[in-house]
Each structure stands twice: as structure tokens, then as C-alpha cells.
Amino acid sequence: MKYTVLYDRLKRLSGKFVEFGGFYMPVQFSDGILAEHKAVRESAGIFDVSHMGEFVLEGKDVEKDIAYLFSNDFSDIPDFKVRYTLMLNERGGVVDDLLVYRAAEKKYYVVVNASNIDKDRAWIEAHIKFGSRLKDVSEDTAMIAVQGPKAESIAGEIFGVLPKGFYTFLFAKLGSVPVTISRTGYTGEDGFEIYSSNAAAGDIFDAALAAGKKYGAVLAGLGARDTLRLESAMPLYGHEMNEDTLASEIGLDRFIKMQKHDFIGKDALASKKPEYTRIGLRVVGKGIARENCAVFSGDDEIGRVTSGTMSPSLGYPIAMARVKNDARLINLSVDVRGRRLAVETTAMPFYKKTKQ
Predict the structure, then answer these.
(1) DSSP assignments along 279-290, one per residue
(2) I need a surface site. Which of 67, 80, 166, 222 has the fewest CB within 10 A?
């Protein structure tokens, strides 16, 4: 089991810990998941996300390797921009979903899911075609997220300068300590993810807590992170996708650029007709549709729930499901321990923040 550099601080601050992705991470703090969720929607939440993995990929022909390894198009990405992408296997299944940061013409940062660090490193190393160099800096990198409508005010007080557009980043300093500030997140809100050395993480965390107090910011854990991302219909690796999930069946086609000359998995996607799709569901009445519950149209089983929860923002249960493309989406229900819950389809994302 691994621990992030902030573990001792979070433990002292009443964090309740669970195993996640090979790490011991706080699922919630003393005020509970609902309070943390509400704070992120209305003010801000501060998360330790140092369990995520970070790689550096660079070399003379790194753009060719980026194009081959990932499904999105990076041919026109400028410096200090971030793009979401999938990394596929030869069958068109998803090895991981990740973020790619262009730091300079020949240097990129790649941020991967915590549970996939070792697998992703091995995959990339095995499939580099054009001589790029991969360096895994996960063990030396801490990551703190400040998310919510007050995130800009909080981060601005700490660093002064911030990236202006979503999916952009910049290099800054806290005193003399270098940091990378990325305007990204996994909550459906505006926010920032701050990368630093492990040695600097405590000072950044303390500064975020201090600056956040007057804005009503709270510490938040994995529980709130999950309800927030689900309301925003953001897929989670291991739930909405895995290595056996055809990438064209997730509803992420805008991140799969079939017009590219070549990338791993392209031939499989071109030759296979998608059989499933991702849909949003709302439970009609009481009960929660949990992961892996069977979805029915009348008496016909048409798929499975991939994620489900009671939506704190909306006040009713929501779920994402993987169902057959040719299924009739009428008279729908979900089997929860032998009891059928009536459900209806609903648009995703389930929740959209109010524009300020």
C-alpha cells in the first residue's frame, strides 16, 4: 500500500481512509461527503490527488510517438495546452484515459490514473516507435486540486498568476519553489490542479487551506470527487471503460480522431461496429442503481449500470449504463438485489453549473 506525501496532514484533519488505486486515500472528512460535494458546487473543495501518475515524454520525434500512442490529435496543440485522450490496445480497447500537456515542442507531460501507473508505463515503453524517452516522475510529484466557483480567488491569492483558459497550464512559483498550475479538474466546476515536488506539497496545501477559509472552502475526499464527476457524466476508468471496452462505445468519439494517419487501435475501430453505448438514467422513485446492476427493457436484459449514486445536487438517484445499441429504451428498469427499480433515460451531463 502506498501513501501520498500529505497522508499525515490529512489524517490529523480527520480524514477517513480507504484503499484506492493502490494508495491509502481519504474518502471523506468529518463533515461528510454531502457537505464536501455542496462546498465544491457553491464555493470550493481542496483535494489531495497525489496518487495520480505523471510521466515525461520527450525526444526528437516525440510528436510522432504521441500521434501513434494516443487517439486524439496533437498535431496542432500549442505550448501550455492540455488535451484529454484515450490510449488504446490493438483490439480498440482502452488501456487508459489520460491528459497530455505540451510543455515545449519536444517535451510533453502525461498524467495517468493511479491504478494504471505501472501498466501505462510498461505499455508506452513497449510501443514507442520513434525513439522518444519516457520518464516516470510519479513518485516525486505531488498534486493538489482546488475545485469550485471560488477556486480562482483562492489560487490567485496563493500564486498571483493563473492560467486563463480551461485546459491550459503555466509554470509559476510559490516563493522560490517551482510549480505547474493546470486549469483542469474532475468535478464539472472551474478549478486548478497544482503539481509540485513532494517537498513543496505541504506548504502549498497549507496555503490553500489558509486562503480558502474566507471563501468557505473545505477539504474533500474521494467520495465527493466521485459524486461530482458522476453528476458531470465524466467516465471513470474501471467503470465506464477498460481494456475490453471498445473505445467507440463510450460516447467519447470526439477524442478519437479517425482521420489521423495511424494510431494503436485505429484498425480495430474501423473494422468493428459498436454494439453498445453509454446512456444516462434517472431512477423513478426510491432506490439507487449501483454498478453492475442489470438494465432491462421490459423483460429483456439490455445492459449493465457502470456507475450510480444519489445526486446531492439534484436530489434524486442517477446512473450511467452501458446498453446495447439496438435496444428499445422503453419500459426501463434496473435489477437491484432482485427488486426492479423503474428508470428513465436522461441527458448527460446530469448537472450543469450555472454560468457566472
Answers:
(1) EEEEESSS----
(2) 166
Cβ contacts of 203 within 8 Å, gap of 6 or more:
174, 175, 177
Angle at 185 between CA 179 and CA 187, to 5 degrees: 145
Q: Are 336 and 319 in contact (CB under 8 A)?
A: no
Beta-carbon-side half-sphere exposure of residue 309 (alpha carbons within 13 Å): 20
Grid cell 489520460 is found at 98
| Summary mean pLDDT of the chain | 97
CA atoms of 238 and 224, how far apart (whole Å): 18
Cα distances (angstroms) measured from residue 203 to each of 142, 174, 196, 208 = 12, 9, 10, 9
Residue 167, Cβ density class (10 Å: 0-12 exposed, 13-18 middle, ≥19 buried):
middle
Question: 3-state DSSP call for residue 203?
Answer: helix
Q: pLDDT of 242-293, one tens digit each? A: 999 999 999 999 999 999 999 999 999 999 999 999 999 999 999 999 999 9
Closest CA to 201 of 7, 2, 1: 7
Residue 140, classed as helix, strand or coil, is helix
Confidence of residue 297 (pLDDT cuts 50, 70, 90): very high
The pTM of the full predicted model, rounded to 2 decimals, is 0.96
Question: Bridge partners of 85?
Answer: 98
Task: Write the CB contacts of 145 (distance below 8 Å, at least 6 apart in sequence).
Answer: 45, 46, 47, 49, 185, 186, 191, 192, 193, 194
In a 13 Å sphere around the CA of 86, the CA atoms on its Cβ side amount to 34
Contact 35, 28 (CB under 8 A): no
> What pLDDT was estimated at residue 353?
79
SS3 91: coil
How many Å apart are CA 114 and CA 136, to the nearest integer? 12
Q: 97-128: per-residue pLDDT in tens? A: 999 999 999 999 999 999 999 999 999 999 99
User: Is the C-alpha dihedral spanning 173, 177, 180, 181 positive or negative?
Assistant: negative
